[in-house]
Design a protein that fits this description.
Helices cover 53% and strands 11% of the residues. By secondary structure, it is of the alpha+beta class. A 7-stranded antiparallel sheet has the order 4-3-2-1-7-6-5, with helices on both faces. A hairpin with an 8-residue loop joins β5 (398-401) and β6 (410-415). α8 (216-228) runs parallel beside α13 (288-315). The longest helix has 39 residues, at 86-124.
Length: 472
């Protein structure tokens, strides 16, 4: 086992020298200094009941990479109580080597992923009027009017001369294409990479479990926002592909822009593959607590992956006039039956056309708006249903009536007095639509979620108003 520890240490130190991120270099050097001690302590005194402690994160792992390490007969804790044959000893060493290989690749691929994100930001953020070296700011704060277009990109450097003769994306379009990739880069550089390296150095499988469990909400939020914007990003890349292809040629880039932008979407899947393999290998070695830690981390990643897949599906919504990535976090979504209030139909001709009584619909609650969609059958078999935009209302305009006649599974969405609609102006307050859920419990969940978000927004508005009046 001492040989395996020395091998892992040498891999981490060699990989550390190639890192382009300064803080990653420092963390890697620290890993090289103490990882040997952590793994030697495991080989000397660990019992089957003690957790195996190590961790790391990064690039894709293919099944073919582990065929040479396939275990024909898993080693169980009971096997250690019996005399170990030469064959079992060889198989155990293979499992130990595979475990260390997985952890090593996890760290190496995480470092490579951070480098790739940084390189993408370095190459394309200047086209969006940003500086990849500056501290990351919110995209909304830095967003400029879309009418301000780059008349020429030749000022960005001599390697871009001649691109002005090709149709170019605007600053706003480049920002929409990149989404929140800058925030992903900073998050992995400052949070995920250092903590993963620290988990391996400490030799503590619980650290990996705590990392993924504690960061699950943040991972879901960041990657969910990136995925919901993917459809819009792909359309921009397709429209301006001649421009980006020439840019790739002039800068002698290995990958196209769409290949760079797909990497964040692949990242969640690769975490899944690593954690699944780590859990399986630890179980084969009889490290039950470590296997459980890796399994819990895997469950957190699977939940985040489910959320990002949902956001990707929502991002493909048809006929939607909203920029979905700017609507805030998705708080709740589900299938319902919508019905427009009869006396309000003349005031809402668009709704009357799109939401006839009792239509099966899909309801989405974001931090900024409540969106009602129709759910249509997929064009192809074995694909997700299609979402077609119906209408939406800002959360700060909503009032919910949770009782409708004697129907305990229906609630009514109303527009508050004095607030103008987005498409129909000067509408008085009143009922807009009735939403029927599958049961009373689901209705109560929807009402509670909507009312909670309404209270948060109104509290924030009141606080800002008081602050403004205090300044005046």
């Amino acid at each position: 086992m001492a040989t395996l520890a020395a091998d892992l240490e040498s891999r981490l130190i060699i990989d550390c020298d190639s890192s382009s991120i300064s803080s990653s270099d420092a963390s890697s050097q620290s890993a090289g200094q103490s990882v040997s001690q952590a793994y030697r302590s495991y080989s000397g005194s660990r019992t089957a009941a003690q957790p195996y402690k190590q961790h790391a994160v990064t690039s894709p792992v293919t099944p073919a990479a582990y065929k040479q390490h396939t275990v024909t007969s898993p080693v169980t804790p009971a096997a250690y109580k019996q005399p170990i044959s030469d064959r079992n000893e060889v198989e155990r060493k293979k499992c130990e080597e595979r475990l260390i290989q997985l952890l090593t690749e996890l760290i190496q691929t995480e470092r490579k992923y951070v480098q790739d994100l940084d390189e993408t930001c370095r190459l394309y953020l200047p086209l969006a009027g940003g500086d990849y070296k500056k501290k990351t700011k919110s995209l909304e704060r830095r967003r400029k009017p879309s009418s301000r277009r780059k008349s020429s990109v030749s000022s960005m450097g001599p390697d871009l001369e001649g691109l002005e003769v090709i149709k170019q994306p605007s600053v706003q379009e480049v920002r929409q294409m990149l989404g929140n990739i800058e925030a992903l880069r900073d998050y992995h550089h400052r949070v995920m990479l250092p903590k993963l390296e620290g988990a391996v150095i400490a030799g503590d499988s619980q650290a990996i479990r705590c990392l993924f469990k504690g960061e699950q909400t943040k991972i879901s939020m960041l990657y969910g926002r990136y995925c919901i914007n993917k459809t819009r990003s792909s359309l921009i890349v397709e429209e301006y592909m001649p421009y980006f292809a020439l840019l790739q040629h002039k800068r002698d880039l290995l990958l196209r822009v769409d290949a760079e932008l797909i990497k964040p979407i692949q990242r969640i899947t690769r975490y899944h593959m690593f954690l699944s393999s780590l859990s399986k290998t630890a179980k084969e070695l009889g490290l039950r607590e470590a296997a459980q830690d890796f399994s819990i981390a895997l469950e957190c990643i699977l939940e985040a992956a489910h959320h990002t897949n949902t956001m990707m599906w929502i991002g493909r919504m048809e006929e939607c006039p909203l920029e979905l990535a700017s609507q805030g976090q998705l708080l709740k979504e589900g299938r319902i039956t919508s019905k427009l209030i009869k006396e309000r139909r003349k005031s809402f001709p668009g709704l009357m056309y799109k939401t006839s009584p009792g239509v099966p619909s899909y309801l989405l609650l974001f931090q900024q708006s409540l969106i009602l969609c129709r759910e249509l059958s997929p064009v192809e078999n074995n694909s997700d249903p299609r979402l077609v935009y119906n209408t939406h209302i800002s959360v700060n305009q909503i009032r919910v009536r949770d009782t409708c006649a004697e129907d305990t599974s229906t609630f009514e969405v109303q527009r508050v007095e004095g607030v103008k609609g987005l498409y129909v102006k000067n509408i008085q307050e009143g009922a807009i639509a009735r939403v029927t859920c599958s049961d009373e419990k689901e209705k109560n969940e929807w009402v509670s979620a909507i009312n909670t978000e309404v209270k948060i927004l109104r509290s924030m508005a009141k606080s800002l108003t008081n602050t403004y009046l205090g300044i005046m």
